[in-house]
Amino acid sequence: MFLAIRLTKTALWIAAMAAAIAAFALVAAPARAQVSIDINQGNVQPLPIAIPDFLANGGDPQLARDIAGVITADLKNSGLFAPVDKKAFIEKISSFDAPPRFGDWRIINAQALVTGQVVRGPDGRMSTQFRLWDVFQGNQLEGQQFVTDKNWRRVAHLIADMIYERLTGEKGYFDTRVVYVSETGAKDKRVKRLAIMDQDGFNNRFITSGSELVLTPRFSPTSQEITYMSFGNEDPRVYLLNIETGQREAVGNFPGMTFSPRFSPDGQKVAMSLEQGGNSSIYAMDLRSRATTKLTDSGAIDTAPSYSPDGARIVFESDRGGNQQIYVMGAGGGGAQRISFGEGRYSTPVWSPRGDLIAFTKQAGGQFSIGVMRPDGSGERILTSGFHNEGPTWAPNGRVLMFFRDTGGGPKIYSIDITGRNERQIPTQGFASDPAWSPPLN
Amino acid sequence: MRQFALCGTLLFVATAAAAETPAISKAEMLKINEAVYKQVNRCWSPAPLRTAVGVGVRVRFKLDPAGSLTTVPEPSPISGLDYGEVAVAAAVRAVRQCAPYELPARAFEYWRNVEIKFVTPAPPPPDPAPDLPK
């Protein structure tokens, strides 16, 4: 009996404790709980950014406005930023040194704010200062001063690069140039000249006369030189041209036609194709010793070599398998592996400066497409298709491409980002083909 | 007897607390999660990170009953993902910009602590290559 009572008491105690714990669980859980969610979509609209005209403290007011205008255009053209309409601004920035009234910028939904001024120093030199503000955090993200003498557009591009890098984490590409083949005149009598311009189409100038046909210009990654192919009175040849001095020299002295040149990443070599008996092989020339090395010997047409950014490998196109496909080999030649296996023909492969992707032209189904794939051939993505797209070239940050398109009237240059968005025509003087993007200027 | 007395006290305290803070159901929790998701998602602008893949940041913060922040949003890395200043700034900016949060007052104990993982959108799927005409 005593045992039974003890058991009953124990049972009651356990039951009471269980009830107490259950009751606690009901209310205690919310106190410890938290909302826990994953977000992986977001607002894919460009980031709203406010860029008021820069102040002109002793400087030229028009220059101050123009610098802000170039920064605005660079960021807008990237497709990642949406400059807020100036008419919406509430605060009129009147001091470069005073913090902005962040609340006024939050109301118009600007997420970032750029303020700046152009100042004339005691020595008469102009300088441009800017600040980048995070409107919602209420703090300064960036600030810098540049001496602004002649090339104020470069200063504006440099500022845009700093803003782009601070807000995207990627290097900017605005302070760069593009060399391309300018085409003028009737279709059957086209004059083709090499031209160079800023990446936004400004400061265009011609660097060859048009007396010879020119093709496939490529920038040196380390100097103010380009390499290109030219048809003169003799066999077509690959040349080096110093774009500052205009000095030109042939690359090597080969018996046949040389074409499709490309610098190595250290700027010390040029890889190119040499035509011999209906086939072509890839050679590399050391620009210091002028020694040449034959890199392919397939008895097919091997062309369009492009180095990986570490200089260890070369991607190229070849019809050794029956039609044009993309292959990767060691930079010393040998061991070529085919990496393109889709339907159609692949050509003009170009290795990204970041090393993560190879851009190409693809011809299939009556269309020419610009696409990217990984260096092992996986992850092929077509960025744009139509008739006729060709000749991709990478921005130095490896996130934007230019190419040319001819829909029948004449070729024009376009840019597109690696997600296939933000396709834009680049302004050029006349028709334009074969763009080649420079490395950063500084 | 002492054991019974103790149990009785615990039971009483628990019941009293339960009366003050109503428990919420799983369905309500999901609704609140969805409401927070919608509000923050509107403010998060990963466009500048569009060409970045595999970037993520976890942000924890506390709210008051009016839905306003009571602490500075606290960012931390997510295992296996890149974690950069830009991603942190975008996530913290989103949390701040969206406040105050409009959430049901009766469930305040549930949503007073919030944790959000922001992960950059995946790149668009590969486009199928056009076929050659047969």
Describe this protein's structure:
The complex is a heterodimer of chains A (442) and B (134). Chain A is of the alpha+beta class and 442 residues long. Chain A has two domains: 47-168, TolB, N-terminal domain (Rossmann fold, 3-Layer(aba) Sandwich); 177-437, Neuraminidase. Chain A has helices at residues 2-32, 61-77, 102-107, 152-168; strands at 35-39, 47-50, 55-57, 81-83, 112-120, 126-134, 139-148, 177-184, 191-198, 205-206, 213-219, 225-231, 237-242, 248-250, 258-263, 269-276, 279-286, 292-294, 302-307, 313-318, 325-330, 337-338, 345-351, 358-364, 367-373, 381-386, 389-394, 400-406, 411-417, 424-425, 431-437. In chain A, strands 2, 3, 4, 5, 6 and 7 form a six-stranded mixed beta sheet that branches. Chain A is globular. A three-stranded antiparallel beta sheet of chain B has the order 2-1-3. Mean pLDDT of chain B is 75; it is low at 1-21 and 125-134. Chain B has four helices and three strands; from the N terminus they run ααββααβ. With 134 residues, chain B is an alpha+beta fold. Chain B has a domain at 45-121: Fusion Protein Consisting Of Minor Coat Protein, Glycine Rich Linker, Tola, And A His Tag, Chain: A, Domain 2 (2-Layer Sandwich), CATH 3.30.1150. Chain B has helices at 2-20, 26-43, 85-98, 108-111; strands spanning 56-62, 74-76, 113-119. Chain B is elongated. The interface between A and B is large, with 65 and 68 residues.
Overall 3D shape of chain B: elongated
- What is the CATH H-level superfamily of the largest domain in chain A? TolB, C-terminal domain
How many distinct domains of chain A? Answer: 2
Uncertain segments of chain B are 1-21, 125-134
Q: What's the SSE pattern of chain B?
A: HHEEHHE
How many helix segments of chain A? 4
Low-pLDDT residue spans of chain A: 1-31
CATH topology of the domain at 45-121 in chain B: Fusion Protein Consisting Of Minor Coat Protein, Glycine Rich Linker, Tola, And A His Tag, Chain: A, Domain 2
Distance between the termini of chain B: 92 Å
Helix content of chain A: 10-25%
